[in-house]
Amino acid sequence: MAPCVAVDRLRVSVRDKHGRDNILVKNVSFEVQFGEVVALIGESGSGKTTIALSLMGYTRSGVNIVDGSVIFNGRSMIDMSSRERSSLRGREIAYVPQSAAASFNPARTLLKQVIEGLQIHQIMPVAEAAAKAVSLFRELALPDPEQIGQRYPYQVSGGQLQRLLVAMALVTDPKLVILDEPTTALDVTTQIEVLRVFKQAIHERGTTAIYVSHDLAVVTQMADRIIVLRDGMIQEVGATSCILARPKSDYTKRLLAAAEPQVRAAKSEAVEEMSAAPVLEVRSILAGYGAVDREGIPAVPVLRDVGLAIKPGTTLGVIGESGSGKSTLARVIAGLLPAARGEVMLNGAKLPRCATDRTRDDLRRVQIVFQVADTVLNPARSIGRILGRPLEFYHGLYGEKRRRRVAGLLDMVRLPVSMADRYPGELSGGQKQRVNLARALAAEPSLILCDEVTSALDAVVRAAILDLLAELQRELGVAYLFISHDLSAVTAVCDELMILYAGQVMEHRSCRALYQHPMHPYSDLLISSMPELRKDWLESISGSVLRGTSTSLTRSGPGRACSFFERCSVHIPGRCDIEPTPLRRLSKNAVVRCLRSEQELLKRAAR
Predict the structure, then answer these.
(1) C-alpha–C-alpha distance, residues 17 and 13, integer Å
(2) Do 230 and 59 contact (CB within 8 A), yes or no?
(3) CA angle 188, 157, 548 (to 5 degrees)
(4) CB–CB of 294/128 below 8 Å?
(5) Burial tier of 574 (Cβ tally within 10 Å: 0-12, 13-18, 19+)
(6) CA torsion, points 263, 493, 250, 235, in degrees to nearest 10?
(7) What average pLDDT does this structure show over 461-481?
(8) Res 28: pLDDT
(9) C-beta separation of 499 from 508 below 8 A
(10) H or E stretch including 164?
(11) Average per-residue pLDDT in the chain?
């Protein structure tokens, strides 16, 4: 039987501004059988996405397929006309890109965009298409599936937006689905549900899939075979179980080693004592969106009574599901979202709530690296100009001094100096995120708010960036607030962890203690949801990890005092759903929001 996809000696090049052709994909050949799931794995710039786009006969601006063939279902994608390719895209071939934020039209409702493919190809009436979309929303564990389609993209979280993008791809029942980092924006618990849905949908529908990812643990759950790429060339191809057990390529071995979770060693008591005064304090923050009522509560509360402290030279990790308030917390600290109540203190001095009221030095000392690089890097500016702007604004550097400092910043984040002449659209997702980090470093801040800073990076580059962050911390004493849903990254770089759920702190302890023995049931849920490098892990945890779906502060209140009540495996009926749940300080500086006693929580954590 002929394969679904056959790629033979594919070569793809890009022309730089000097008119030179650089080869991105070098003589790549492989086949994908019908019903098979094949993963493309490799670091940023390895050619994964370029190959995936070539399967649709598509290339980005300035990129060209210069040789080879791509056959889909017996037809040449390269030789067919643009009209013929258009008739296949969105119907027989669906593509799920990495960045959901850049894929949706902010002026149209989500439902209209999800069913657009069904209407373009005239597959079914609008009412039937809408019903099918709602069914997919339910399958993908989206909140309020009957009504979420009436919202606009900016009214849902990043993780929810990514699942909606997956719904858009699956709604036409395509023969081939190309998934380009589809779970990058998802928290770990949501990721499990989405992966389970992907796997079930692919097997039940007989859909063939190409899964592009830098996350080996995720790929392990999904793929029948893995193709390892580096510098546009295939390094190794094999069945998933063989790649995990007997990798042949040294590069594959490096990928596997980088994917193993690491826990940061605890700082010595002497170091802790030297850095006793916090660089940042957040006190009793209440924040959200919409009009504030007479009691000072926003119409849509996101954070309630959140407090924390970060000492110089340390890292506090903030983890939680999509919509838990992680990014909102960063925006409050940066002054991008004024808090309704509470204080943000920097080196003991109270910061104005709004960034526009802060001094230039206040702005310099607190930098933020956003989650989605696509939405914060000006596509019309070169990387050199993007990095040069903060050097001018904060340090008055111009000309040759600025050029040398830009080169130094690029080197810091493991990018070549030649990258200064390129534009964001010419960079991979991981490269753009590294530029994002370099821009923050340009200000020489006291505190960097890292909002999913490693989410777009492959395991090898992520490890290098985490090492870089640690090295900068040792040299400069810079502090980090590290927001992530990637627990393997958090445990590698953080000294302390704070768990957020529905805008409230559930647990705050040292990273090592919390990772090894989580006390709060929600903390245990998150850590149990970290994918492992074994083929049957997803099936082994099915039905035992998750209970219900994420909630929000607007659903807590009278009759639901604990926002985690419905999902908690150890809740106390008649108490947890009625009584207020205080944040209690236990022994060894542990802070936990739970009505269970410390002895009960410790006994549970020891299991």
Answers:
(1) 13
(2) no
(3) 50
(4) no
(5) exposed
(6) 120
(7) 85
(8) 96
(9) yes
(10) helix 158-170
(11) 87
- Cα distance between residue 452 and residue 372, in whole Å: 8
Among 163-172, 232-241, 531-540, 573-582, which range has the highest average pLDDT? 232-241
How far from the centroid of its chain's Cα atoms is residue 236's Cα?
27
* Sheet-wide strand order for 366-369: 366-369, 447-451, 479-483, 315-319, 496-501, 504-510, 591-593, 583-585
Please determine, for residue 273, whether its predicted confidence score (pLDDT) is greater than 70. no
pLDDT of residue 366: 96
- Strand 225-230 to 37-41 pairing: parallel
d(C-alpha 558, C-alpha 593), whole Å:
17
Tell me what pLDDT residue 550 has: 47
| CA distances, 293 to each of 290, 297, 342, 588 (Å) | 9, 5, 16, 39
Higher pLDDT, 316 or 192: 316
Strands 176-180 and 93-96, sheet pairing:
parallel
Dihedral of the alpha carbons of 366, 370, 371, 377, in degrees to the nearest 10: -160
Q: Are 149 and 130 in contact (CB under 8 A)?
A: yes
Residue owning tokens 């796997």: 199
- Tell me the DSSP string of 437-466: HHHHHHT--SEEEEESTTTTS-HHHHHHHH
- Listed residue (201, 215, 150, 156) closest to 550, CA to CA: 156
Q: Is the dihedral of CA 421, 422, 424, 427 positive or negative?
A: negative
493 and 315 in contact (C-beta within 8 Å)?
yes
SS3 478: coil
Question: Angle 429-442/459-476 helices, nearest 10 degrees?
Answer: 10
Query: Does residue 260 register a pLDDT over 70?
Result: yes
Please list the residue range(s) of the chain that carry CATH number 3.40.50.300: 5-232, 279-605
Q: Which tens digit of pLDDT belongs to each residue from 135-178?
A: 988 877 788 999 999 999 988 876 688 788 888 988 998 999 99
279-605, CATH topology level: Rossmann fold (3.40.50)
SS3 40: strand
Which element (helix H / strand E) includes 94? Answer: strand 93-96
Closest CA to 25 of 4, 56, 6, 53: 53
DSSP assignment of 364-386? HHEEEE-S-GGGTS-TTS-HHHH
Rounded to whole angstroms, what are the CA distances from 441 to 290, 397, 479? Answer: 33, 15, 12
Q: How many CB atoms lie within 10 A of CB 67?
A: 15
The single-letter code of the amino acid at 19 is: G
pLDDT at 384 over 50: yes
414-428 in b/e form (b: 16+ CB < 10 A) is bbeeebbebbbebbb
- Phi and psi for 373 in degrees, rounded to 5? -65, -30
Question: Six-digit token pair at 171?
Answer: 């709604």
Which helix (H) or strand (E) element contains residue 549? none
Q: What residues are paired with 12 via a beta bridge?
A: 25, 65
CB atoms within 10 A of CB 69: 15
CA–CA distance, 509 with 563 (Å, rounded to integer): 20
Distance CA 399, CA 403 (A): 6
Q: What is the pLDDT of residue 306?
A: 94
Tokens found for residue 542: 């099915």
CATH superfamily, region 5-232: P-loop containing nucleotide triphosphate hydrolases (3.40.50.300)
Q: How far apart are CA 402 and CA 389, in angstroms?
A: 9
